[in-house]
Structures are given as structure tokens and as C-alpha cells.
């Protein structure tokens, strides 16, 4: 019998396929449609002919591990041991799967905050665990009363995605303090911190689990270069965790993928000497601001966007349809593809919200906004 009997084609594939069929502007899937940095392309062109095409070490290319450790210390003032506390993964999704399947056993419970990225629950189910879905507040901030009430003697892990996909919200200092207060009572619970959008933040700084002295001894942090460097197809991510946790995850990783794409690791390792993540963040902020400005006179209500490259909107003043039907009509009749937020909830909560990806060229955003403003 299948371990995922209820899994179907993802909403991202459905919406992108529908967009292709109808020639719609695709703001659904979360990937950029603009060129990569010319410096990265030049590095790639040069090293493709070098002797870099065999397996890298299981834990990752040593030079890339060193660059990540340097960036982590620079950004968060945390010194990470590359030999014992880091692991290069085939994207953050594989890192998430590895972390969950290392520590979650049959009947263990994992708290997931809804709306949530769609890979968390299947990873828990494959491990034989029980996903416990806890809804965020109406403004997509964490509800710590609900989180604490969901904790039982079987709770093994809580998954925290910050900055948050799909809503674009960022946790505050008080949010972390509230979590710390709760988890002080439950020292056995692990944290999986999904921080793939850590370098795409706007109005307030991203607070990383790397900086939380009370929590980092039991936290596994999943990060990725795909979002920050506009190379989502390269699938290069990494995990940071204390040695005792990392030692166990390496065992699962070894038999899941063994090692990650060698070319991508080499290219990124060299490129990290050149890239400025602050510039990347400012670039995405300018796109967010452009998209918000273009829609300010539309009938969509724009929700707060603190980070990521997603803008959530409410369409209550336009239609009473459920969000999946409205999203499909948006493609077929108005030529713009978005993702309905209800698919990110276990109970399909429908608040008439859509998620647009603004990691697109300015021309694409302008063309999409013109259509959206006609509604």
C-alpha cells in the first residue's frame, strides 16, 4: 500500500499547466523568469570544462562548506564546524525530508503551522509520523496558544518556516521569545527551521534560529541557494545543526542521495566570493514595491509582505467563488496564474486569498498588473 495514498498532482503543476494551455502570465510557481548574474554564468562556462564532474564528498564540497560557514558567521555571528555541523543537500526540500525521516518515528507527532509549504506533511507521513496542523492567526502571525495546546507527549518536532511561504510574513523577536518560553517546558522537542528565504527580506530583518542561544542546540536549519541566487533548478541546499543531530542525519542522507550535484557546488562556491546578499534583498524589495504600487488601485486587497518573493492578496471585493475556482478563472478568462492559499491548509481553509510570485521581470509584472486591474 502506498505511504501517500491521498497525494495528487501538486497545485503548482496544475496551475502552471493551465497557464501554459491558455497562454497566461505565470505568477504561480515560485521561480524567477529573469537571467542569472552574468558573473555566475561566466564561472559556470569556465569550470564546466574542468575536472569537477565526479562525486563530491558525501557531506559536500569542502570549499562550499567553508564559504557557507564564513557567510553564517558574517550574517549571524555563529561559528559552524564544517566537518560536524553542516551538510550540503539536493535543495532544501531534500534537507527537510532527511531531517524529518531521521528523527520522526511511527506515531511521533510533528507540528506544522498552516498555511504550510506542501513538502512537510508528506515527509512526516513517509516517516510514519502524524502531522499536527496548527493554523496561524488571520494576519498569518503565529498563534502560540494554539501551538502550546497542540503539544502532547508524542510531539517530536515543530516545523517553523521563516520567512514564510506562502504568506511572506516574518517572525519578530517577541515571536521567538514566546516559542522559547513554550519549549523550555518541553526540552525533548526538536525544531526544524526552514529559512530558504532568509536573504529576501524587506521592512524588518530576518531573525535566524542561528542566533537563538536557547534553541539552536535542538534546531535543524534548512537553507537553500536556489531562491537567493535565482537558480532554483540547481537544487543545492544545506543543513546546519548541532553535531549530535547532524551525525544521525548524515546516515540518512548517505543512502538517500549520497552526494549532491558536483558542478553546482563548484560554481556556487566560487560565486559566493562575489555575491552581495544585501543587493539581492534590495532588488526583490524593488519588485515587491513595484507590484504593490501597480495593484494599489485594483480591487485586490494586498496583505503584508515582510519577505520572500510572494504577495498574498484578498479578492473578496471581486468574487465570492472559492479560491481554487477563482484562480482557475483568473487563468482562463483574465490571463494571469496565481496559487490559491487554501491548498496550503490541512482543512482547505478558504479566506479568498491568492499568492502571486513577483520574482519576475518588471515587464512581466506590469503586464500582469494591467490585467489584474481590469477585474
From TrEMBL:
Source domain of life: Bacteria
Keywords per UniProt: Aminotransferase, Pyridoxal phosphate, Transferase
Keyword Transferase found: yes
Cofactor: pyridoxal 5'-phosphate
Record GO terms (molecular function): transaminase activity
Entry keyword annotation includes Manganese: no
InterPro entries referenced in this protein's UniProt entry, alphabetically: Aminotransferase_I/II_large, Kynurenine-oxoglutarate_AT, PyrdxlP-dep_Trfase, PyrdxlP-dep_Trfase_major, PyrdxlP-dep_Trfase_small
Domain Aminotransferase class I/classII large as annotated: residue spans: 25-371
Protein name: Methionine aminotransferase
Organism whose genome encodes this protein: Flavobacterium chuncheonense
Amino acid at each position: 500500500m502506498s505511504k501517500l495514498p491521498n497525494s495528487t498532482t501538486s497545485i503548482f503543476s496544475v496551475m502552471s499547466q493551465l497557464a501554459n494551455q491558455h497562454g497566461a502570465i505565470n505568477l504561480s510557481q515560485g521561480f524567477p523568469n529573469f537571467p542569472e548574474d552574468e558573473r555566475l554564468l561566466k564561472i559556470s562556462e569556465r569550470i564546466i570544462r574542468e575536472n569537477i564532474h565526479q562525486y563530491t564528498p558525501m557531506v559536500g564540497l569542502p570549499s562550499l562548506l567553508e564559504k557557507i560557514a564564513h557567510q553564517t558567521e558574517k550574517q549571524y555571528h555563529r561559528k559552524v564546524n564544517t566537518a560536524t555541523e553542516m551538510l550540503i543537500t539536493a535543495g532544501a526540500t531534500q534537507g527537510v525530508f532527511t531531517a524529518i525521516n531521521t528523527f520522526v518515528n511511527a506515531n511521533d507527532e510533528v507540528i506544522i503551522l498552516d498555511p504550510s509549504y506542501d513538502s512537510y506533511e508528506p515527509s512526516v507521513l513517509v516517516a510514519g509520523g502524524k502531522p499536527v496542523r496548527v493554523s496561524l492567526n488571520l494576519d498569518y502571525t503565529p498563534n502560540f496558544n494554539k501551538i502550546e495546546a497542540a503539544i502532547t507527549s508524542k510531539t517530536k518536532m515543530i516545523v517553523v518556516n521563516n520567512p514564510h511561504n506562502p504568506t511572506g510574513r516574518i517572525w519578530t523577536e517577541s515571536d521567538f521569545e514566546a516559542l522559547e518560553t513554550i519549549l523550555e517546558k518541553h526540552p525533548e522537542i526538536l525544531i526544524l527551521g526552514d529559512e530558504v528565504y532568509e536573504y529576501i527580506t524587506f521592512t524588518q530583518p530576518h531573525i535566524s534560529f542561528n542566533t537563538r542561544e536557547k534553541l539552536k542546540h535542538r534546531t535543524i536549519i534548512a537553507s537553500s541557494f536556489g531562491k537567493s541566487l535565482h537558480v532554483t533548478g540547481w537544487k543545492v541546499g544545506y543543513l546546519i545543526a548541532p553535531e549530535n543531530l547532524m551525525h544521525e542525519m548524515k546516515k540518512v542522507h548517505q543512502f538517500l542521495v549520497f552526494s549532491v550535484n558536483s558542478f553546482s557546488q563548484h560554481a556556487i562556491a566560487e560565486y559566493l566570493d562575489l555575491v552581495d546578499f544585501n543587493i539581492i534583498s534590495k532588488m526583490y524589495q524593488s519588485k515587491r514595491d513595484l507590484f504593490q504600487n501597480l495593484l494599489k488601485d485594483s480591487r485586490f486587497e494586498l496583505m503584508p509582505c515582510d519577505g520572500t518573493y510572494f504577495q498574498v492578496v484578498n479578492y473578496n471585493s471581486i468574487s465570492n467563488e472559492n479560491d481554487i475556482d477563482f484562480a482557475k478563472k483568473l487563468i482562463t478568462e483574465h490571463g494571469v496564474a496565481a496559487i490559491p492559499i487554501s491548498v496550503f491548509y490541512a482543512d482547505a481553509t478558504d479566506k479568498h486569498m491568492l499568492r502571486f510570485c513577483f520574482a519576475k521581470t518588471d515587464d512581466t509584472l506590469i503586464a500582469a498588473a494591467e490585467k489584474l486591474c481590469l477585474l
